[in-house]
Amino acid sequence: MRISVCMKQVPKTTDIKIDPVTNTLIRDGVPSIVNPDDKAALEFALRIKEETGAEINVVCMGPAQAENALRETLAMGADNAYLISDRAFAGSDTLATSTILSAALNKIGFDAIIAGRQAIDGDTAQVGPQIAEILGLPQVTYCADVKFDEEKNEFTLKRQSEDRVQTLKVKGKVLLTVLSGSVKARYMNVKDIVKQESKAINVITYDDLLCDKATIGLAGSPTKVKTTFTKQFNTEKDLIETTPQEAAKIIAEHLKAQHLI
Ligand SMILES: Cc1cc2nc3c(=O)[nH]c(=O)nc-3n(C[C@H](O)[C@H](O)[C@H](O)COP(=O)(O)OP(=O)(O)OC[C@H]3O[C@@H](n4cnc5c(N)ncnc54)[C@H](O)[C@@H]3O)c2cc1C
Description:
The chain is of the alpha/beta class. The chain has a single domain (2-215), classed as HUPs (Rossmann fold, 3-Layer(aba) Sandwich), CATH 3.40.50.620. The protein is built from 6 helices and 11 strands. The protein has helices at 36-52, 67-76, 94-108, 127-135, 190-197, 244-257, and strands spanning 2-6, 9-11, 32-34, 55-61, 80-84, 112-116, 139-149, 154-161, 164-171, 174-178, 202-204. The strands form 2 sheets. Strands 9-8-7-10-6-1-4-5-11 form a 9-stranded mixed beta sheet, sandwiched between helices. Helix 2 (67-76) packs across helix 5. The chain starts with a strand and ends with a helix. The mean pLDDT is 92.
């Protein structure tokens, strides 16, 4: 069995900077991490590998610096790492990103795809479902638990929605998106840290993929970021130094005056 895990390298901070000219994220020199939901996706894949010997391929579209994040996934136990990188992909919105990732996933080959529910920078949760749509795959999103029965070639999934948990059984090729809070991702281990040093990162460029240039990159993205700005918080503040009891009284009066209580 071959499981492909989609992994995005994201800024380690919420204090992201946007390029005022292209309105895209400035990634150079910003400390980055493996997107939390994608660590959970890899953890579920590695648990299936422990039971079935499945091959785990991690796929990341990003600039050259994303190699660091890929090496972290190899050091966690992934078998192969693929960096989908080309200037032609820069500035891709979610649909363009999904188009490129789908072409790469098809090229690599898979029996199942596990992605994160959401990336902490773009925050759209659109890429997973869009890849499933482009590849014509059934999709189960918001998975809080993923089990695989090799004999039945069947996944048993717990899907978390706001007010309920559904248990779903899915046979055959499928795309799953998972939640980071649902599983504790393992740390890198010494054996795999050493092993990954001699492993090559497989780089896939535009020329390796069958993508129509009109559907990728900034130019091929139907979503255009019109303006971006950092929200200014300039709420008025009254600083009152007093006892807790007095403070509670003042706050209650204040809320009453605002008809909030
Ligand atoms: C602040 C900000 C706002 C944005 N707003 C929009 C917008 O409104 N509409 C729009 O189309 N684009 C938007 N973008 C661009 C969008 O972030 C990129 O297209 C991005 O590559 C994918 O979207 P996402 O970050 O929302 O990922 P999600 O859709 O939130 O990611 C879900 C999962 O898909 C997989 N995945 C996502 N990106 C990659 C990748 N590069 N490599 C491998 N796996 C990946 C991961 O498993 C991830 O957990 C925005 C970007 C930023 C920084």
